[in-house]
Amino acid sequence: MQAKGSAKKIAEKNTVALSNLLKIHVAVSLLHASYRIFYHWSTFTFSQWIGAVFVNGLFLFLYRALSASAKITYAANGTVEDAGEDLGGEGLVAYMFDVIYVGWFVLLTTAFISNKFWWTYIIIPIFAAYTLYKKVAPMLGRGGSAMPQQPANGKQQKRATKVKYSRG
Fold first, then answer.
1. DSSP-derived secondary structure letter, 73
2. Do the Cβ atoms of 83 and 74 come closer than 8 Å?
3. Rounded to the nearest 10 degrees, what angle do helices 4-34 and 46-69 cross at?
4. Can you give the pLDDT at residue 27?
5. Are 14 and 2 spatial neighbours (Cβ–Cβ below 8 Å)?
6. 144 and 137 in contact (C-beta within 8 Å)?
7. Which residues of the chain register pLDDT less than 50?
8. Are 60 and 39 contacting, i.e. CB atoms less than 8 angstroms apart?
9. CA-CA distances (angstroms) from residue 22 to 29, 43, 54, 118, 157?
10. Whole-number pLDDT of residue 2
């Protein structure tokens, strides 16, 4: 259990992070839509519209997941009891932010540079497959061993654990 002061700080950071995330996404989406519609209407195809809907739908899904994981729980007296998941942490939360950042990159680059930047989204499943392979391969006997090699006999073990001191 976290200390109450720590929970309050995490709750404040999470609220600011979610607020900034929403503001930036609205700005990026409006910039993409307005530029594509007003300046490049002739190239704004149905597939462009579907892509924009996909990016915004993915953002909405991830934003709701982040909001739910960062949900603040208050005690009966009104103090913060639990700040929820720290949105500045590692793991799945960081991956969700990465997917959102890739979406913003795709929206901006497809608006201003080229429609071919939609292919940037292929990075996400490739990275997921690579990460999964790194975790599963040692269990299947590929890509190295799951456990570090142990020295075979006692003499080698002593040599491996012996600490060498030097004067510097």
1. E
2. no
3. 170
4. 94
5. no
6. yes
7. 1-2, 146
8. no
9. 10, 28, 16, 22, 55
10. 47
